[in-house]
Amino acid sequence: MAEVADTSNTTPLVLAADGSTVALSADEVLNLAGDQNKYQIRMFVFFALQWAVIAVVLMGQPFLFKPPAFECEASSAPGIKFPCEANVDNCKNSSLTITPRADSPDTLVKTFDLYCDRVSYITIVQSCFFVCGSIGIIIFSYLADQIGRFVILCGSFTLTAFMMFIASFMTNYAIFGVLLAICGVGINVYVTLCFIALAESSSEFFRQISNLLVLICWALGEMLAAPLAYAADSDWRLLCRYCVGLPLLVMALFYIWIYESPKFLVIRKRYPQAKAVLKKIAAANGRELPEFIFKESLNTGSATVETQNDKGPQYGYGDLFRYKSVRYSTIGGSFMFFTIYFVYYGTTFALTSLGGNIYVNVLVASGAELLAYIVTVPIATKLSRRVTFIASFALSGVFAFSFFFLNIPDECNSAEATCIQKTLQTVFISLIRFGISIPFALIYLYLNELFPTVVRSLGNGFCQMMSRIGSVLSPVVTGVLTGTSISPMIPLGIMALLASVVVIPMKETFGLPLADELEENVAKGKESRTSDEDVNSSNSSAHY
């Protein structure tokens, strides 16, 4: 038997006489198996298609809840109906009977009578979608760091597909709301984990490009929501069943060709499973791996350690604040993510209240978002993360504060009236969307680089939970300030400028490999190895 020293570890590896077994790290094996080849491209294509359809769910809600045209009937003139609006004054007028016009689109508002005293039910269901999503992220992100990425990722996506399809048949709004809330859990967990799974199975360059290309497909799906809603005449059942539910159910079959994260399996010391997954990836990429043993398994000093089933240390959300190396990453990342969603959805809800053609408003804003994602592709591979975040947050803040000078005149306040100020507001909201879409495109990539593998899902989950709070608060703030002397865009601008300051102390991760362990544990490991070397040296001296 021959002994070959491991250059990254003081423990020697005993090899067969023919040298057929080599010691490799998880990253080195992934590189040999192919870290930007057919398998990674397959993952990207699957996720991109899924994101495009999910965009229709999230960004198509203005069309699902689009108010129909109403008509009124006065008690003093029964049988005579005239066009009217379901505004506060008409709803309080007991002499008027308000009903949706028979020829108006079958939106959720029309089907479930979500107007007048039932209009608050819209906000309740939309808020539950995000609140339940936040709760789901906290629970399932923790489980993903314990039992694995694949089970949670596949389960959350399949759950979303089934719930959305079933919801399209509902005749009771309360049941529909419950099913939509469950969809919120599935979608939010899926969004958190798909980028983690992609990052832990690919190279740095592929990770950067694929993340951004997935978001470009998201923007294309968002733009597709408008023509789909128009073609379906905003019929919510057609949209939920055939444009979202059925495509997602078909796409759930894609997970037959997706495997568990090899980096997760190695960090959890599930070496036989990690080796099996890497061999599958190599086969998918048309490559063959040599016989190897993981370098990470050598820390115990036994070459047979790969047969053990030690899961490694278990971490919880408290550890994100207990360890200094990830403490500010958690705090800063949470504030950044909160701001991104607060501003992003704030502009979305503002678009629906501008009046004019809602389809055009959404298309213009979505086009600005798509342009931002395209611009971010070269930025992600050439500029530092912090500089990009600071500049884009500041840009969004400046555009938001421009609303100090874009007041709508009284004669232009009705939904049908058009004026240059409304057009300028649509343009500047689109510019805010452009500015905030750049950090939106990078935040998933940045968080994966900030948090090591052992707490990556936890860190992502906590930050994304805070982002959902931002998405819940944005319609509240927009609704409270609409109609007052303060533009709803001003709070968005304040938060964006604050976020640009919060980014300054954050770590720079551009060009660095993904970390697997917490810095404190890496330092302890080095101290332990140094201590062992000193002991061995002393023993050798004693012999002489």
Distance between the termini: 27 Å
Helix/strand order = EEEHHHEEHEHHHHHHHHEHHHHHHHH
The overall strand count is: 7
Q: What is the gyration radius calculated from CA atoms?
A: 27 Å
| Mean pLDDT over the residues | 85
Overall structural class, as computed from helix and strand content, comes to mainly alpha
Q: Helix content range of the residues, please?
A: 55-70%
Descriptive notes:
The structure is a single chain. Helix 6 (120-144) packs antiparallel against helix 7 and helix 7 (149-167) packs antiparallel against helix 8 (173-199). This protein has helices spanning 26-33, 38-59, 61-64, 88-92, 108-111, 120-144, 149-167, 173-199, 204-231, 236-251, 262-267, 271-284, 319-322, 324-352, 358-382, 385-401, 420-450, 456-481, 489-502, 519-543; strands at 2-4, 13-15, 21-24, 70-74, 81-84, 96-100, 291-294. The two termini are 27 Å apart. It has 20 helices and seven strands. The strands form three sheets. A three-stranded antiparallel sheet has the order 5-4-6, with no helix packed on it. A two-stranded antiparallel ribbon has the order 1-2. The protein has a two-stranded parallel sheet with strand order 3-7. Helix content is 64%, strand content 5%.
List its traits.
544 residues, mainly alpha, three-stranded antiparallel beta sheet, two-stranded antiparallel ribbon, 20 helices, 7 strands, 5% strand, disordered N terminus
